[in-house]
């Protein structure tokens, strides 16, 4: 399948970068049969087109002291959606937040140190936000897979 953004070689490069964002241009070049410069140009092209948004590090939150991971479905008054989403996004406990289909719903992932901190977050940081009409939460018991990018 051909895309306007990438070909099969780009697909291999992206998949290798998803596995290891620190792989060298030389190693990538060997895997795809191109020169180091050609691989560097392809990566720069993918970045410029927005296919690769950024390179980052994935931190194991549990080993960093964030032992409790919870997801929230937060319903919001439609006129307050942007304001509420930005307010929550600014909170350091919020790992990610998305607008979902449905009646002005936000899907939020929160990481905190312990259950006391989760209770504090819910009572002091979440319930105090004007415009929220409903909150549902689920605590993660075990992680089987976490998105670090996706394979093409």
From TrEMBL:
Transmembrane segments: none annotated. Residues 6-67 form the HTH asnC-type domain. Keywords: DNA-binding, Transcription, Transcription regulation. Signal peptide: none annotated. It comes from the Bacteria. GO terms for biological process: response to amino acid. InterPro entries: AsnC-type_HTH_dom (IPR000485), Dimeric_a/b-barrel (IPR011008), Tscrpt_reg_AsnC-like (IPR019888), Tscrpt_reg_AsnC/Lrp_C (IPR019887), Tscrpt_reg_HTH_AsnC-type_CS (IPR019885), WH-like_DNA-bd_sf (IPR036388), WH_DNA-bd_sf (IPR036390). GO terms for molecular function: sequence-specific DNA binding. One of its GO terms (cellular component) is cytosol. This is Lrp/AsnC family transcriptional regulator. The lineage of its organism: Bacteria, Bacillati, Bacillota, Bacilli, Bacillales.
